[in-house]
Amino acid sequence: MRNLALAMVVLTTITACKNENELKKSNVIAVTYPETKTVDTVDTYFGEQVKDPYRWLEDDRSEETGAWVKAQNEVTANYLEQIPYRQELKERLEEIWNYEKVGAPFIEGDYTYYYKNDGLQNQSVIYRKKTGEDNEEVFLDPNTFSKDGTISLGGLNFSKSGKLAAYAISEGGSDWRKVIVMDVESKKQIEDTIVDVKFSGISWKNNEGFYYSSYDKPKGSELSAKTDQHKLFYHKLGTSQKQDQLIYGGTEAQKHRYVSGSVTEDGNYLFIYPRNSTSGTKLLMQDLSKPNSKMITILDTSDSDTGVIENVGSKLYLITNRNAPNQKVVTVDASNPNPENWKDFIPETENVLRASTGSGYVFASYMVDAVSKVMQYDYDGKLVREIKLPGVGSAGGFGGKKEDAIVYYSFSNYITPSTIYTLDPKTGNSEVYIKPGIKFNADDFESKQVFYTSKDGTKVPMIISYKKGVELNGKNPTILYSYGGFNISMTPSFSIANAVWMEQGGIYAVPNIRGGGEYGKKWHDAGTKLEKQNVFDDFIAAAEYLIDNKYTSSDYLAIRGGSNGGLLVGAVMTQRPDLVKVAIPAVGVLDMLRYHTFTSGAGWAYDYGTSEDNKEMFDYLKGYSPIHNVKEGVEYPATMITTGDHDDRVVPAHSFKFAAELQSKQTGTNPTLIRIETDAGHGAGTPVSKTIEQYADVFGFTLYNMGYKVLPNKTKSNIKG
Length: 721
Known about the structure:
The strands form ten sheets. Strands 35-36-38-37-39-40-41-42 form an eight-stranded mixed beta sheet, sandwiched between helices. Strands 5, 6, 7, 8 and 9 form a five-stranded antiparallel beta sheet that branches. Strands 10, 11, 12, 13 and 14 form a five-stranded antiparallel beta sheet that branches. It contains twelve helices and 42 strands. Helix 4 crosses helix 12 (688-705) and helix 7 packs across helix 8. It has a domain at 441-706: Alpha/Beta hydrolase fold, catalytic domain (Rossmann fold, 3-Layer(aba) Sandwich), CATH 3.40.50. It is of the alpha+beta class.
């Protein structure tokens, strides 16, 4: 086997053009890729041998992998630097991004806190004022954690009195966290840092200490080694982490991949949620008001999702999809909380329910074809009113403490920047609290919802957004984006980056495909395991709708998605390489035979199943796994795979191996690049500066491979007037 350093010298061209003039004429940049060595790794599944020639790229700590990453990034950077308007896109992104962004305020102790970003700060800053006063001060500035913004804030929680705070930090985008406890008055750290925390909230027990979750540090790489026994701990202030009490997860019987703990606002109850997958949770309770009280099991099976949203004394309010696929709210007394004693509080309807509490009310937020509708109830179950929203879109928030006089909520859609409103729950009156001063005129754009038919006859909604006056001539640059998994709903929301795309005459389309939560558990389940192909079929049908109705054509269509959405893009581009011009799979789950062997990947089995389950599941996964379905002699779309070298949720090996397969088998002149962000993870906490660079590269790559030599709004316009 040749040394990688030697292999890097040997370059293989994929360009079939005859001369440089032909390259310029066809908007093709000649690309040479580093040769990626192959190894003779073979796995056997149910008697079938499957080759894995790029297994060595799974070792994120090896010098060989590091050299490969560096070489690939050099090739990608060289390509992107030749796109003539990439800098122009970056400058416009910076210009439109540069406005003050302020979050909804919240009261803790004597202070009112809020997040604020002056415009282009890498991380938002937490400010505060003495409640009722005007003088603001910086409470916590994550931009001081590191020079380049790669250490980010991962959570901030206050004790019951508001005199203490615990905040988590993430380094390089990793899911591993450190927790720091501070005195809020002096803003000084008061004890040693808690380390090795992962997939955890911070829930205070009054002012005495807090609950958090983590795994034992894995053997091997902490960024890719498997973690499958989550544990809930209690940290008592003034003691060392070594003395933290193990609350749940320390035995084989209590072994779960995810365990979280949450204390009620009054500090009286601890609720524990053990789960083995991203869907389905058990539920346990402990009465903290009684010393040495025993843990009570409310639900001992993982066939539903149930969570406690509020309590009034011993009366508990739970939201559940147990025998209610679209969810409902029930009440029960803590003295006997078993399901047979549950009473319907807000019954299930035909629309999916989310619930929150604030100011002594329960707010029921429904999705009606992915659009928000909000109802307000009192604690006795009486409907108070329907909240009048500012328009058609997504409303979020409606949460707070019982004593809060005002409830805050946000509203946005694909063409309306997020605006924060105050709601007086006694009168139902809403007022604008903060309207963003963004340089974007929403009146120049429009969104419309359409319904199209998927392969099996299922009706699927899609929202299409664009600049008014776009001519439906089949030549509009279009991004089709979705997710399609894990009960996650694609509801309308504003994106600064997508605003720049639409300014260029671009169309942005988001279908609400199966696998998501838009129509409840049944919609989710219809896109899982042996039904996963429905997700890809829905996405393909969305593309065909856009083409058939002249919004765009295959030459001007790009598909984009991240994480499970990266799998969506990888599967569709390998199943229908003729359908689109550009594919942008981001941090994708792309090796469906091995995804469950990395970090917490086994927890995704509810959606995917695993290659070890049985032969039928193995065959099904292998049939759509993007890495295993790249074929010789096929011209795949122009592809730019994006990932982060510190992604320990969907490890970058997925993207590395997919890039290697495409580069070795791609036919024709379409480029296959991989853009690997350094000191970055799955996405959360990414500095604004890096985010802007990523979008400039993605949009530049997309437009260039659609044939644009200058930006669309500078060509003979496809915008009337």
